Amino acid sequence: MNGEAASLRIRGSEIELCVRAATLGQDVLDVGKLVASDVFTFDPGFVSTAACTSALTYIDGDAGILLHRGYRIEDLAAESNQLEVAYLLLTGELPTASEFEAFRHSVLAAQAVPAGLYDVCRALPADAHPMAVLNTLSAALAAFEDLAMDMADETARREVAIKLIAKMPTLVAMALRHQAGKPLTEPEPNLDYTANFLAMVLGNTPDAVVVDAMERILVLHADHEQNASTSTVRLSGSTGTNPYAAVSAGIGALWGPSHGGANEAVLAMLEEVGDAEHIDAFLARAQDPDDPFKLMGFGHRIYKNYDPRAAILRASCHEVLESLGTVNSPLLRLAQALEKRALEDDYFVRRKLFPNVDFYSGIILRAIGIPSSAFTTIFALGRIVGWVAQWNEMHRETLKIGRPRQLYLGPGPRAFVAMPDRA
Ligand code: ACO
């Protein structure tokens, strides 16, 4: 119930707090008043902390449910496309045909990037990691844009959101072409959003099966409430910084192997496992507390059930590989055998560790022709929609800078010792 009273007894006095009710899922205890009592909450990793309100995405991790603006991810993946999901996340509603056409047109018209960005890209080392290239290009975009915008202006925010959704495929394609040592490409105005991206990457008009597979991957990565990269975008955006800088911060956070970097790590792991007969040895390593190895693509902070996105990609993997004539891919067989063994293993069962979205996405991306070191750039391409939608939502409210506190465990005040007198 909203406003339900709660109390906290500390050092002999009682602090009155209140509960704020969610429309779905966990209610929260509003601890904002605690600071007046000279005490903070302590929650490393934010396991029990809601940092904001949001109406974009809902996850029920126990039931394996993911909703965007109330719509099931299974329906969106089957019936919708990335631009429609972008419209939905930004505005709250599915578009009518004319609304969609206008939105699609404004995105497609904004896909080109300044010529100077191509020079920036060419100046980077040929063997640079594609995420380093993407991060550089997205940050450099700010250097070419007019940054004087009123963040409180809904129309200005929508324009910049469209710009970022439009330009991200071009930037990712540049990163991939640079990695492949191929001439950089430009968007083709007659192609749709996802087909255009693939055409820029592959250098030719892609097959419909490949476009469909990529579309599904983008939709499945569009948003995932307050994950590490989105929280990074919100935190940096809370300073009032420009959205290009905020998105670059998010790309940096996404890169880590505990987050978006896991899709690259899954393929490396499957290649290292090599054969089903080595699975048990890898599962044993994953359970060894003295070994830092983790089963990549397994486990999730919120899902304690099958990640619904992984379930969709698992099925999609079969369809895509079948259409491409590679359904007997040894990699897919190995991934399925690994999943089966892990899901029967007491260690994974007790900890409720299931495949996450990264477990099967890499197999599809590889079949499409994306090199594994570039997988995380595809995650970023999908997630740009969530980043800008969350940034936009944050700016609807009075902006409060995100500024966590700490439990200080360092030394107390002490006298400075001149260098010659130090032991
Ligand atoms: N392999 C082996 N053990 C695991 C794994 C795994 N993949 N994931 C979690 N565990 C174990 C932990 O060691 C811990 O065991 P303990 O209770 O004996 O200490 C227990 O399960 C709980 O795990 P935590 O690390 O506390 O879970 P947390 O929510 O902090 O981490 C994370 C979630 C980072 C996703 C973790 O499961 C992981 O590292 N997985 C592998 C990397 C990965 O796939 N990342 C992608 C995440 S999804 C995304 O960003 C798209």
Could you please describe the fold and organization of this structure?
Helix content is 50%, strand content 7%. The protein is mostly helical. The strands form two sheets. It has a three-stranded antiparallel sheet with strand order 1-2-3, with no helix packed on it. Strand 2 (13-20) and strand 3 (28-30) form a beta hairpin. The termini are far apart. 39% of the residues are buried. The mean pLDDT is 94. Bound molecules: acetyl coenzyme *A. Acetyl coenzyme *A (ACO) is lined by residues 258-260, 262, 286, 294-301, 351, 353, 356-358.
Give the overall average pLDDT. Answer: 94
Strand order of the largest sheet: 1-2-3
Distance between the termini: 61 Å
- Rough outline: globular
Q: Compute the CA-based radius of gyration.
A: 23 Å
How much helical structure, as a percent, in the residues?
40-55%
Given the structure, what is the number of helices?
A: 17
Q: List the bound ligands.
A: acetyl coenzyme *A
Low-confidence segments, ≥5 residues, pLDDT <50? none
Major sheet: size, sense and barrel closure?
3 strands, antiparallel
Element pattern in H and E: EEEEEEHHHHHHHHHHHHHHHHH
Fraction in beta strands = 5-15%
The counted number of beta strands is 6
Supply the helix-strand structural class: mainly alpha
